[in-house]
Amino acid sequence: MDTLKHTPLYNLHVEQGGKVIDFGGWALPVQYSSILAEHKAVRECAGLFDVSHMGEVVVQGGGAYDFLQKVLTNDIESMVPGRCRYSAMCYEDGGTVDDILVCMYARDHYLLVVNASNTDKDFEWLKSNVFGDVKLENQSAAWGQLALQGPRFMEVLENAKVGEVPAKYYTFVPESTVGGIPCMIARTGYTGEAGVEIYCKAEDTAAIYKALLSAGEPVGMLPCGLGARDTLRFEASMPLYGHELSKDITPLECGIGFAVKLEKPSFIGKEALLKPLKRVRIGLKLTDRGVAREHSDVYAGDKLIGFVTSGGVAPTLGGNYAMALIDIAYEGNTEFEIDVRGRRIGAQKAEMPFYKRAK
Hints:
Elements: E1 5-6, H1 10-15, E2 19-23, E3 26-31, H2 35-44, E4 47-50, E5 55-60, H3 64-71, E6 84-90, E7 96-106, E8 109-114, H4 119-129, E9 135-138, E10 143-149, H5 153-159, E11 172-178, E12 181-186, E13 195-201, H6 205-216, E14 222-224, H7 226-235, H8 251-254, H9 270-273, E15 279-286, E16 297-300, E17 303-313, E18 320-327, E19 335-340, E20 343-350
Parallel strand pairs: 1-3, 4-14
Antiparallel strand pairs: 2-3, 4-10, 5-8, 5-9, 6-7, 7-8, 10-13, 11-12, 12-13, 15-18, 15-20, 16-17, 16-19, 17-18, 19-20
């Protein structure tokens, strides 16, 4: 593990018995107790994740707004300070550079939260397209980030003597505190549950993490690893870069058209995205025994029509599910087959998200 990148919490993960693995060059816990127990805790109570490996890029300057309108598929015209917005960034051919979170401090100051494995690539791509009065800074190493997710997240925050908390989904408070420690708190999420992300200085991450662990004990919160994070996002049918999105899969094929505003005058990849859609992401519930893994072939009758992008057990729902990218001509079909290790197993089209929390 010495050759891998470490988050500010690496030593704590080891001390607390986290099962640390190589995750895209980072040493991160895949689980503490068990993936199922941690998954259940987030669905029913609360869970705490170390997501400090995520990247943070600051965009500042008088040209920041115009620059981001060029490189983002979403429209930031209606954003105001304190708002977050989900977007993709595309290559000229429509393939996805990354899916990101945009946080607006001011019209000349934004924070982009990018996927960990794409941080360096994204930063270089942004630099190669920059124009005007814009300053780009990759501040990833200076930040720590924690995700507190689950229906009782507010109780945990209150026990930790939190300062101001964002009241609405996809908003953030730039200056708050947890246990008296300065931080930024955003109300977004990647589990299908309510919750927050807490951004802080790297050197303050361990103190905030410990404060939240202590505050979560009375409500049954668990520290969680990447295993539960993946099963939770999978149940909620949220795309994962490298699976549902990639340089070869466009945001429209993935089904995140809400983050693509084709009415914008121009942005990188727009012309390609205006072309008729040939593939689409669908949800599947397996009707035979077996687990559909990434890249498994999907058939309609004897016709190979696509492949699985993510598959596995949905612990909350019971049963095995999959997301697949298929030929759009077969989008209306309800019955499919998936090749699992040379054996065809049945699957039915399933509405996404597979899991949706009660309001």
